[in-house]
Amino acid sequence: MARLLFILIFGGTGIAILVSLGTWQMERLAWKEGILAEIETKITADPVDLPASADPEADKYLPVRISGEIGERALRVLVSQKQIGAGYRVISALDTGERRLLVDRGFVRVSEDIPAPPEGEVTITGNLHWPDDRNDSTPENDVADNTWFARDLDQMARELDTEPLLVVARETSFSDAPVTPLPVDTASIPNDHFEYAMTWFSLAAIWAAMTAYFLWRTRKTAKGDTA
């Protein structure tokens, strides 16, 4: 009897803990989906003028419309697109006449040449962004070869003589083919809470099955000893 009670307590406690962890992850999922919905709403809002002093927290993803002339130089950030393959993000300077800032023009395949910038003033609609491309395994940027592995804004700004402020293009007033805009979205923001929840609930189910098995085996053994 004592052994059955121990299995019940141990098994029930384990199941309760695992189910509570799964429930907590479902609550986190609802919270994260709300945050992502807010970000998507902000990204697709009507564009505004470039703020005089942009804040990386308050103004991240802020939609803006800017006009100016695109500089001759273009930095190449190595990236990969699903079903397309390797390519570069094209980063150029935009001179508004009053300010110089960075513009992420979009994606071009490694096999294609980056087109010369258009002449004269252009208008770009996009979103302010402070990307976090770098992790422990990211190589250092090869500035001499113009091969960049992360959009390090400070380093890019020094290279192109701009503010460390980036606008990721969504629409342009000119044809930049074969460069294709890669507008910001929430796809790169991790949201694995559903998978975590299913893991905890699966472990709870396994724990429950194992508890039931040990209870059955203990009862069977006890009956055999009694007989």
UniProtKB/TrEMBL annotation:
Q: Where in the cell is it found?
A: Cell membrane; Membrane
Q: What is its main location?
A: membrane
| A Pfam family recorded for this sequence | SURF1
Record family assignment: Belongs to the SURF1 family.
The protein here is known as: SURF1-like protein
Q: What is the species listed in this Swiss-Prot or TrEMBL entry?
A: Roseovarius litoreus
Q: Which InterPro entries match?
A: Surf1/Shy1, Surf1/Surf4
Stored PANTHER family: SURFEIT LOCUS PROTEIN (PTHR23427), SURFEIT LOCUS PROTEIN 1 (PTHR23427:SF2)
Q: Which domain of life is it from?
A: Bacteria
